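REQUEST FORM: STRUCTURE PREDICTION
Request ID: SP-0412
Submitted by: Lab K.M.
Chain count: 1
Length (residues): 285
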Amino acid sequence: MRILLLSDNLNNWAIHNKAKAIKKFLSEFNFDVDAGFGNNRFLEKEKDYDIVHFLFTAGLTPDYYDYVKSNPYRVALTAVNERSFLFGHISNPKQIDELFKTMPYCNSLSPLIAEKYKIPYIPNGIDTDKFFKHKKPIVGFAGARHIATKNAHLIENVCKKLGLEFRVAAYIYDQATGEIEHEKMQDFYMGLDVYVHPSTTEAFNNTIVEALSCNVPVIMAKSGSWKLFEGWVEFIEPTEEGIEKGLQKYLGRRLIVDKFLWKNLMPEYKKMYEYMRDAKPYRAN
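STATUS: Completed
RESULT:
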């Protein structure tokens, strides 16, 4: 089955790379990729393809309206923005509204548009062959880690569980491993991605203002002078669960691996192409 993937342009990061990803991960089909925006030359060769898949929306009307409308079982449409539907970002919004209401093979990378037209939602993804590098976030704590109410041991437990690097700086009066002279603390903070202070009791902890002075994000428990930092730090419960929840945002790759890998999203495109081949209804699935 031959499929023509129409990007808006051939140098567009989002749409062109999406076309290349479809071609890469669905190698059982025969794909060509071409620019579609303001380009009618594809109409001269469209009969060479079993499916023409428009991966962009802004150029659908008026240039291609008649072609799309007259080929409901050979044309697939993917909505890639909300502007064209909700804010009149095209010359004839009524036409694009009609197409997505009536064409049988449509999907959207916008949840809002998918719900509006009752079509499948397929988000964009990541190719880990390109984005394979990722950093290990560095989590820091400074202070008397041997004092139980500081809860440094909770941070350490969470970091081990999540695979994060944990760095500790102890003040000079503390003989624990990691002792750093106060004059060198700026270097310690500058090496962190986030500073955590989950103390259950405090008056005013200097390390919070020190970390913030270095523009290091801080997550802390609501102890001591916490109200002074509202709007500038993230508050957590002084428990392992609370610390883990606060640190989750520094592990964005886990979200990507769970939900946004191209190789895991492609089965939905494959299903659409196979349904088109067999002339089966797609919207209801």
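NOTES: The domain at 2-127+259-277 is CATH 3.40.50.2000 (Rossmann fold).
Reviewed by: T.R.
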